[in-house]
Design a protein that fits this description.
Elements: H1 2-28, E1 32-33, E2 46-47, H2 50-64, H3 68-72, H4 81-117, H5 122-139, H6 158-178, H7 185-203, H8 207-227, H9 236-255, H10 272-279, H11 281-297, H12 309-315, H13 320-340, H14 346-370, H15 377-381, H16 394-404
Antiparallel strand pairs: 1-2
Helix pairs in contact: 1-2, 1-8, 2-4, 2-8, 2-9, 4-5, 4-9, 5-6, 6-9, 6-11, 7-8, 7-9, 7-13, 9-10, 10-13, 12-14, 13-14
Length: about 400
């Protein structure tokens, strides 16, 4: 436990004390986003390279406290052959995970940095997502191998496992990119997910995955000090996609946790696939909904718009902070339900959690349709676009730039 706390607070400290310098550099080098489009919700120029410091804090802490001595400490003289063999297998698996996770995160990190600075086409971004997913699934062999009784399916064929795992990784990466639409949302949801995964792996005696989880949680918790409304820095694609990848890997590892069934803690009772989907419920539900919506409208699933759930909360009258906290609470509620339903059959539990999450996701849109007053023509003529702010003039942008400088 001491090692996990050291990991968390090291990552927290790196991000907390380094982010102000990164903000100043980004402003000086003009690496910021300007509120020049109606769909954008911020009102001042804001740096978009926060993913750099999240990446640095997470992996500095993870590598610094990586338990190499514990993994390699095998007492040959006083241990049985079987015990040594099991210890060696654990060490091999941990080092294998470390190697491939770091390699794939580096790929997405640099693709994201390029996109944050000069832009990258959606096809190239998707190609990078597919490549890292293939490395994780085929080379690292981190994949879903069983449905654990959902719809009465247990072990699944190898090729089905490959395609399901690839799909899960790519969707999760894009899901966190999609929800990074209001201040503090993606960082907060990611922090909650990483912390819960860290506790899960701690209970399952998987120290390496627990360390990765707590290092990510520490970085994101510190980043929230600068990313809450009004945000002074955004995480950008370099942050959202790498967070999505790390959480996708943690989710797959949690589903296939080898010690979960024999643990003397509550994790032996929890239905792992349902619990993992509950942890990622908001990004997954929002992504599913937006894909269906855009497909019906006949537009690209990757085309940016203002039809996400967090946009609906803003349109219903909430500000950034209240919308973010509402979605934190909804996500925690779904996680709690997944734990509460652990004694139900996997199929019933999955259906119940899915429909409750889907119903909660529709509530903001129902409220807007039936209760929210539409803006008058007078307000529209005076610059109200229904999105929380009007376009920012060149003079205002210059003033904001000098204030940040």
């Amino acid at each position: 436990m001491e090692l996990l706390l050291l990991t968390f607070f090291t990552a927290f400290g790196v991000v907390l004390f380094s982010t102000p310098s990164l903000i100043r550099v980004a402003i000086l080098k003009r690496l910021f986003d300007e509120p020049t489009e109606d769909r954008k919700l911020h009102k001042r120029v804001t740096p978009t390279i926060g993913g750099i410091i999240i990446f640095a804090g997470t992996f500095f802490s993870f590598v610094l406290w990586f338990p190499s001595d514990a993994l390699l400490n095998i007492d040959v003289g006083n241990s049985s052959y079987l015990k040594n063999a099991l210890a060696l297998e654990v060490t091999k698996s941990a080092l294998n995970d470390f190697k491939y996770i770091l390699a794939t995160v580096l790929v997405l990190f640099f693709v994201g940095v390029k996109d944050d600075i000069i832009g990258t086409s959606p096809i190239k971004r998707l190609a990078a997502h597919v490549i890292v997913a293939l490395i994780i699934v085929l080379m690292a062999d981190i994949r879903v191998k069983s449905m654990h009784g959902i719809f009465f399916i247990n072990e699944i064929p190898y090729w089905s496992s490959i395609f399901i795992s690839l799909f899960a990784i790519i969707v999760t990466i894009n899901a966190f990119n999609f929800i990074d639409g209001i201040d503090g949302l993606a960082a907060g949801i990611g922090c909650i997910a990483a912390f819960i995964f860290g506790v899960w792996f701690f209970m399952a005696d998987d120290i390496v995955m627990s360390l990765l989880s707590f290092s990510l949680a520490g970085s994101l918790f510190a980043f929230l000090f600068f990313n809450f409304s009004p945000a002074s820095i955004f995480m950008g694609d370099s942050g959202s996609t790498t967070i999505g990848l790390m959480l996708a890997v943690l989710a797959l590892k949690a589903i296939e946790t080898p010690n979960a069934e024999t643990s003397d803690t509550i994790i032996s009772e929890i239905q792992r696939p349902i619990f993992v989907m509950a942890i990622l419920s908001y990004p997954l539900i929002d992504t599913l909904r937006i894909f269906v919506y855009r497909s019906i409208k006949g537009v690209s699933p990757f085309e940016a718009d203002r039809n996400h759930i967090h946009h609906a909360l803003l349109n219903a009258g909430m500000n950034h902070r209240s919308a973010a906290f509402t979605l934190y609470g909804a996500n925690l509620l779904i996680i709690g339900l997944a734990v509460a339903f652990r004694n139900l059959s996997p199929t019933i539990s999955f259906i119940a959690v899915f429909f409750i999450a889907g119903g909660l996701a529709q509530l903001p849109f129902v409220f807007i349709k039936f209760f929210k007053k539409k803006p008058t023509k007078h307000n529209q003529k005076n610059g109200s676009h229904g999105n929380g702010h009007s376009k920012v003039s060149d003079e205002v942008k210059k003033k904001l730039f000098h204030e940040n400088n």
